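Hi C.,

You asked whether I'd gotten around to modeling the 380-residue construct. I have! Everything is below, sequence then structure, no commentary in between.
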Amino acid sequence: MQRQIFTEEHHAFRETVRTFLTKEVLPHYEQWEKDGIVSREAWLAAGRQGLLGLAVPEEYGGGGNTDFRYSAVLAEEFTRAGTPGLALGLHNDIIGPYLTGLATDEQKRRWLPGFCSGETITAIAMTEPGAGSDLQGIRTTAEDEGDHWLLNGSKTFISNGILADLVVVVAKTTPEGGAKGLSLIVVERGAEGFERGRNLDKIGQKSQDTAELFFNDVRVPKENLLGERDGAFIHLMTNLAQERMGIAVAGIAAAEHLLEITTRYVKEREAFGRPLARLQHIRFEIAEMATECAVTHAFLDRCIVDHSDGTLDAVHASMAKWWATELQKRVADRCLQLHGGYGYMTEYPIARAFTDGRIQTIYGGTTEIMKEIIGRSLLA
C-alpha cells in the first residue's frame, strides 16, 4: 500500500539519512560492534548533518521542527540499515523533549548547543538493579544540601552510559513521597563521585554502549534540577508516549525489512529441486507476515500523524509499542527459521536482526506493562 503520511520534504530528508548512513556509519559499523561502542566522531558527523536536535529551536542550533514524521524517517532508515548502535533516537526523541520542555533558559543555553552539535551525548538513568519498571522502587536519592544536591545510588542498563556527557538521573528528593517524590537531576561528565561501571555485554546491539552508573556523594549544583522538584513522575509520563512511538516505528520497520530479505531468499534458495518459494507452506508463511505488517503499518502511520498533531494518547502509544514490537519478534523468529541453518550464521543479516531486535519488547516499558496500561484504561 502506498503510504500517505510523508511529503516531499520528508522524502528528501530520507535521502539525507541514507547518504549519512552510507558514508558515516556503515563503513565503520563492524568495528563498532567489535569495540562495543560507537565513535564519538559519528555523533559529531550526525550533528554536522543536522540529524541531532531535530525539534530543538534554531537559536540553540537545532532544526526547530517538531514534526515527529522526521523522527520516524530517521528510525526507519537506521533500522533498515541494521545500525541501532548509534542511538540518535534515544538522544533526539527520548531525552530531547526533557531538555526543550523542562529546561530553564540558562540550562538551554548551557546544554542544547552541544546536544545539537554532537559534542554533548546524553543518557537518561531511570532503571535500577532492584526496580526495573517500578518507579516506586527507585532508591537513588538526592538530598537538598542548601546550595547543592547530594546524589547517592546506582543505575543499570543505561543506554549511552559510557559515552554520555549529560545524564538525566531519576532520584528521590522526598523519600516518603513514593513515585510522586521523584525529581530529575542532571549530572555532567567529570562530576566527582560519578563513576561508570562496565560496558554491559548484551546478546545484541553490541555497539550501543550500555552501562552501570554509580553515584557516591555526588555534589550536583542546585541549578541542575530539571523541571519541578518532585515532578519527575508527571514529566516521565508526559514523554513516554514519544519514546514508545519511536520504538514502535523501529519495530514495524524491522519486521518489513526482514520480510523483504526473506522473500528474496526463498525465491533464490532451492530445496528438493525447486525454489523454496514454490512450496505452499513457505507462501503461506510469507502471506501471513505480509498481511500482519500491512495492517500494523496502517495503524502505526495513523499514530505517527496523531503524535505529530499532538493528539496521540498514552493508551494508543502503548498499543502501538506492544503490538509492533511483538510482531517484530515473531517475524524475526519466522524469517530466521525460513533461512534454515544460514539464519543461524552471524554473517547473514537475519541473525543479527534476531538478536538486535529482542530488546524491543523490553525497553521503553515491557509488553506486560503496555497491556496493563491499556487494560486499566478500559476497565477502570
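If it helps when you're writing up: The beta strands are 122-125, 141-144, 148-159, 166-172, 182-188, 194-199, 210-221, 225-226, 270-271, 274-275.

Thanks,
B.
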